[in-house]
Amino acid sequence: MLIDGHGRKVDYLRVSVTERCNFRCQYCMPEKPFSWVPKENLLSYEELFEFIKVGIDEGIKKVRITGGEPLLRTGLDTFLKMIYDYDPSIDLALTTNGFLLPRAAQALKDAGLKRINISLDSLKADVAAKIAQKDVLKTVLAGIQKAKDLGFKIKINCVPMRGYNETELIDILDFCKENGFEVRFIEFMENKHAHTGAKGLNSQAIQDIIAKKYSFTLVPRTGPSPSQGYALDDGYVFGIIEPHKSDFCESCNRIRLTASGVLIPCLFFEQSQSIKEAIQNKDIKKAAAILKDVLANKPEKNNWNEGNENEVSSRAFYETGG
Ligand code: SAM
Ligand code: SF4
């Protein structure tokens, strides 16, 4: 079992397989052109898998594949199958912007994947295009439909942004409710790569909008999910991910691995350690020791308070996988 320096059980590993992306979401990607990590500096799937095995052997129970856009990296289905075959009891999930799902979903299903989180910030083509800086809505909706038809358990992620999608939150909730998807509104986390002036809605503002149509009650937390549930009168539960709340980190069970082999204990802080050399030298003991050291020094809580935007790590969300 993996326990961090604050007594929290850590059993959830998020693995970013690429920092590249086919979208340029206002809240995630820089305005100016940027350069990618050269492909030769990335860990191969086999190397990422070696570390995932270390994690699973030490107590990781849930693995989420993310990016950048994970479906841009070829062979993702084979990678998922490697993890699934190693331990079919692992809760294996994927986070994607959905654009490549129409053609990728079947292979993901065949690889053993059962759960997909898909980002959907707007149901209006022009707003979705403004946020992603690309005409995406039709293809993303086709991807969502394909995943639904194949029987995937689907969660929808939506980042409410001032001046973009704030008028659509009820429509997005209704879309998810009608389709049997859980929706999670994610508070915008200020970062150095987001579009200048990007401003999100906090949990209270999101609730105030939903309250215009629905009454709801807070669902008491039972596990370490980052999402706070709110139950409508008919039982449908929507979630809000509230990293600005002071108790958000109390039950944090997560650690992140980037595509270049960097282990990150907290999105907010700069601190990290690379497992790349250990894995490439096949030094499994060293990789396990680095994992334990990173967890021993995992920060107690983030610092996403108003006015602290400049303290946030210089790493981009498209590098860490959100
Ligand atoms: N490309 C995939 C996608 O968009 O779903 C996976 C990677 S993306 C970094 C993972 C999640 O992080 C997405 O749901 C995205 O909306 C969210 N995200 C990105 N930047 C964010 C920010 N600044 N604040 C809050 N959520 C953010
Ligand atoms: Fe790409 Fe996802 Fe970032 Fe949007 S949120 S730019 S889809 S990595």
Task: Provide a descriptive summary of the structure in words.
It contains 10 helices and 12 strands. The protein has helices at 45-58, 76-86, 101-110, 125-132, 137-149, 169-179, 203-210, 276-280, 284-296, 317-320; strands at residues 12-16, 62-66, 91-96, 115-119, 153-158, 182-186, 216-218, 227-232, 237-241, 254-257, 262-264, 273-274. The longest helix is centred in the first third of the chain and has 14 residues, at 45-58. The radius of gyration is 19 Å and the shape is globular. It binds S-adenosylmethionine and iron/sulfur cluster.
Going by CATH, the homologous superfamily would be Aldolase class I
**What share of residues is helical?**
25-40%
Domain unit count: 1
Q: Write the element-wise H/E pattern from the N-terminal end onward.
A: EHEHEHEHHEHEHEEEEEEHHH
Q: What's the CATH architecture name?
A: Alpha-Beta Barrel
Structural class: alpha/beta
CATH class: Alpha Beta
Q: How large a portion of the residues is in β-strands, by DSSP E? A: 15-25%
Kindly state the number of beta strands: 12
Biggest sheet, open or closed, and with what strands and sense?
12 strands, mixed
* Small molecules bound in the structure, each named once: S-adenosylmethionine, iron/sulfur cluster
**What general outline do the C-alpha atoms trace?**
globular
The total count of helices amounts to 10
Low-confidence stretches: none
Task: Enumerate the strands of the largest sheet in spatial order, edge to edge or round the barrel.
Answer: 7-8-9-6-5-4-3-2-1-10-11-12
Query: Taking Cα atoms only, what radius of gyration do you get, to the nearest Å?
Result: 19 Å
CATH topology: TIM Barrel
